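Sample log: Helix-turn-helix transcriptional regulator.
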Amino acid sequence: MPQRSDIQWGAETNGQRLARLRKRRRWDQRKLATESGYSLSAVKKFEQGNRSLDRADVILRFVKALDCHPTEITGQPYAPPDSDPDGQAAAASVAAVRRVLMRHGRPAWPTEQEVSGIDLAGLRARVAQANAYRQRSALAKSGAVLPGLLRDLQVAADLCVGEERRLAFGLLASGYECAMQYLYKLGHTAAATLATERVVWCAEATEDPLRRLSSRWYDAGEFLSIGEHDEAGAIIDDALTELSSIRASRPEAVSLRGLFHLKASLNHARAADGKAAEMQLQKAQEQANRLGEDRNDFELQFGPTNTAIWSVTLPVEMGRGKDAVRRAEQVTASLPADYAPERRSHHWIDVGRAHFYNGQRDEALDAFLTAERMAPQATRMHAGVRETTRMMVHTQRRSSLVEFGLRLGVV
């Protein structure tokens, strides 16, 4: 096991990237402090790596000031280290997935074999398998199946007519959702945005009002991720208004209504409006109680369990570690063992970040390791995990922490 003095710090920190972006604009630290609303002391600590630059709301304030993209600060996408062959396998298919996304809307020009092989029932089963990989965050397996699956779905959508065409586009939308999550987890945000656009277009072609609205949930997330809170809020408000005109007793409508309230709560949290965030969370909880069960409509998970997980996410997003840990104690105890590993791992990542904010470094590492066991690549590629782990390695000699940092590629 390498000693701390032997560790090579090759990767840039978020603070170093922030400093480089500031210098690109020929600003001094005082100018960045004025434009971002942070103190000069805070800017210095961020750039020197003495203060964690991992929270989305903090990053977005610098993004707005510097007119850059969040990934220019977070450094995504990350290259999996040699010590993570599964991560390298997951990343190997990114180019192939992006190529097939680029072909959306173009004539499929299928071969005779592809034409004769169109089988909607078979495609439905393959999409179900891809979604199972997605919920397990099995990124290497997702990357292996997505290029061929998306190609076959594009052929079916191009050639089918009538009701079969609508069904094909519904399956294609679901396939693109899998691609979007695969790319997003690996940090390829531009390609993930491309996939999101394809989801929206395909959902429109299904002529199903609820399917179309479900795609808007991802659309709102795109604007939220770059700090365009008003635009994200407008999409959410429009969706909730439209949902109010749909028969309220339909469980799919209840589920979507709750999901949009969750998205609204996150939007308010990142805009530093804690009161509004909690109000939207309460509205989501009301829909979850009304539903009374966990559902997976349109491959979007909603119900009491996911709402509980989000109740921990919100204080983490606002840097309220004590509130998040207090809530997590109840949520963790009631989290079903068979719930989607992707969501359970995200919960443990939030728990780890909350402990980090409280100065509880050992507890933070234990939570991250729990998340890694559930979803290895998704945890290792998570920007917040990487930034907080890097800072912890700076201040602790614990061997398991350094080993985790090596798997992430931050040491």
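Observation: The two ends are 13 Å apart (CA to CA).
Observation: Residues 162-185 form the longest helix (24 residues).
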